[in-house]
From TrEMBL:
Keywords: Membrane, Transmembrane, Transmembrane helix. This is FecR/PupR family sigma factor regulator. Residues 27-66 form the FecR N-terminal domain. It holds the Pfam family DUF4880. InterPro entries: FecR_N (IPR032623). The chain crosses the membrane at residues 97-118. Residues 1-21 are annotated as: Disordered. It comes from Pelomonas dachongensis. Residues 1-11 have a biased composition (Basic and acidic residues).
Length: 119
């Protein structure tokens, strides 16, 4: 069951309550996905620690999004990157095809120009 939108004790002993808002939940989801990506580095991890230290709501949201990430069957980084690589290859093939069309058009134009000059 999702805890998003429920009040939390702020963990500071102040009696105030922190809320995991949809915005905080979305930020947590972005952190989870980013940490499973190819660009993970020390700076990213430091940024995550700073974000987590902003409030207990951030920590709660991150834990919940991590649980969701791990619970979804088929949500594996390797599969996601394989799909991205395949899409990239398709775009590259499409670009080559378009480039070949332009080369062919250029050859035709040169041939027509040569015929016109020869006349």
């Amino acid at each position: 069951m999702s805890n998003i939108g429920f009040d939390r004790d702020d963990g500071q002993g102040s009696g105030r309550r922190q809320q995991v808002t949809p915005q905080i939940a979305a930020e947590a989801a972005v952190w989870v996905v980013s940490l499973h990506g190819p660009d993970r580095d020390g700076a990213m991890e430091e940024g995550l620690r700073a974000w987590l230290n902003l409030s207990p709501a951030h920590r709660e949201a991150f834990e919940e999004m991590t649980d969701i990430w791990q619970a979804i069957p088929g949500t594996r980084t390797a599969q996601a990157y394989a799909a991205a690589i395949e899409a990239s290859k398709r775009r590259a093939r499409r670009r080559r095809y378009v480039a070949l069309q332009w080369v062919a058009l250029g050859v035709v134009a040169v041939c027509i120009g040569a015929v016109l000059v020869a006349l």
